[in-house]
């Protein structure tokens, strides 16, 4: 830092801030390996991601200041500043790689977006610090990742369409089944109404038949009582003769008949 301070106080201050962040990242990833709780791991990883994002911003600021002083520094100093910047980028990329390892290790607990490209902090390699071959390799890698993401998206779309088709067919079958159930309920309700009317008619008929039977029973009982009394006491004048059961009438003489 002393050599940077001789070039620029601003560069020295930025370098100090970046060094503090690197120490915090080193300690943070060491603690992350010891955390067992998934939620605490996620929160710790988010905090480390914020620190990496801040470190990238400082590296860009460092590069901006170096370019601003390029015309006022000699070749050796400029080379030293560029090497310092590339060293910062390399160290930050090592922490980005650690972050990816932890994310892949706990991938089931991480929300996955198939259409989400590399995060800003993951794409920390600066074009000015990469060779043409590195740029081409990085571009090919990003194209491969994009193709894989597209393939995964197509697979999810096909699975979603299949699930939607199966769901629609199941809903159609359930709708038809409900319609049949409603029709059966209407039929049952109609049958119950007819049965209720029939039961009422049978009840009225039975009541009428009972009245008739009771009346016939009384008539028969009365006839039997009269016959019984007549047979027991044929001279009883209080009981009128019943045709066919009365005793034969006595011969009566006419008034005008001679004695």
Automatic annotation (TrEMBL):
GO terms for biological process: protein transport; vesicle fusion. The chain crosses the membrane at residues 212-232. It is a single-pass type IV membrane protein. The keyword Coiled coil applies. Residues 140-202 form the T-SNARE coiled-coil homology domain. One of its GO terms (cellular component) is SNARE complex. SMART domains: t_SNARE. Keywords: Coiled coil, Membrane, Protein transport, Transmembrane, Transmembrane helix, Transport. It is found in: Membrane. The keyword Cytoplasm does not apply. PROSITE patterns: T_SNARE. Residues 38-72 form a coiled coil. GO terms for molecular function: SNAP receptor activity; SNARE binding. CDD domains: SNARE_SNAP25N_23N_29N_SEC9N (cd15861). Belongs to the novel plant SNARE family. This is Novel plant snare 11. It comes from Hibiscus trionum. The lineage of its organism: Eukaryota, Viridiplantae, Streptophyta, Embryophyta, Tracheophyta.
